[in-house]
């Protein structure tokens, strides 16, 4: 084929294809956002003196930090972390067998469907609401807070669990089946070894979520960060709130770094010390 | 050309007959044992800290039945009183998502190794983002209520901060994983970093950005029903009211509303995600 030299390539770009549906969707989304802005009952004028106010309160809270409150803030934060830990451990114990039962191919469909529905319902309810329900049964202690976190964890851990188990490579599964392995052998040798790193990784992730969620539970009386926050905001003890804020940030960041390092160890097999801002 | 690499060349490179013995599994029993002991110890320490008390729960079951019976009978007449709060929750979530997404996009480009050539700026942005992410949303809400006053505005601000933490993390991680060819081409033609990123990287991450924003919106719906507990507007204020007076009929209606709202919006957003991505 001779290349024709008479036709010069046109300098115009190809026209970008547009999809009418996509345009409509974008319009709809923009419309919803505009409607929300337009209808919300907010005095936007208060935004004008917001920066000044913010600086004033930050000064009240953090300049200088009130170290006399450090002990109490640390205790409150540790209690919240303990709540998160127990909540995560209980959530793992409950969700682990259930997520196998919710996986297609490991249990009959009749068992899969209701479990998946239960996980979805739990995920839809905020942990605080679960805690309020539980507190109507047992009264509110840090332990009840942990139970609420455990129930909330079952919703997400269950879902992530069956997704991980269904997503493993079919090769090992087939190998187990072909040698005559039953369902238990299939789980132990065909599914678990491939899924384990992912599963450990999202257990850690859920613990990180629970550390943050446990702060809320204190507001309704479970103790820990939320309780200290409420006690001090009510009486406008800003230096105590500031100290709490510092301790919460520090402890949460340390926990995230540790769990990041552990996650690396589990997935890549090395203790690559994560940098402070990774 | 390389003869030694050709299969079958030279002496047969068969390993001696391995027999039928299985390979021995590498053992790290001591390490696993230590990990188990450590986890048990932490669990025990945490359990003592929060005073795990199973007998109390068993004892309390008896006075719980009345409450549960109340919870199972939602008071549907209460619905009309909840409409304003329900609307406010929706408005807060929508506005916070829109504002949060707008602020997060440029920050995400600054927080990704792939799109930010200045290592110091990168570390700085990442460190600040880690700090922003480490504060629970309820803590933001409580402080902002004091600064701005009770109502939707403080709630929106708290959610925006919470969203920036999440979206920047997700988007900068997807930027880290993108193909850098187009960006390199744009830089090679003399484009500045911002221009190259806008032309080459932004179109690549837009679909995942859209789905991450939708995911954040779902989180916001949940969060905006809660932050009202400290006075930041939305359904939370109602929850706080009915809870203090133990009006479980009304509480269960609010829970039902949250449930329906979240499930409807989740299915809508998963449909939208399929269409957009």
Automatic annotation (TrEMBL), chain A:
Bilayer topology term: Multi-pass membrane protein
GO annotation, cellular component aspect: plasma membrane
Domain (ABC transmembrane type-1): residue spans on this chain: 77-259
Transmembrane segments: 21-40, 83-103, 241-262
Gene3D superfamilies: MetI-like
Family membership noted in the UniProt record: Belongs to the binding-protein-dependent transport system permease family.
Name recorded for this polypeptide: Phosphonate ABC transporter permease
Originating species: Arthrobacter alpinus
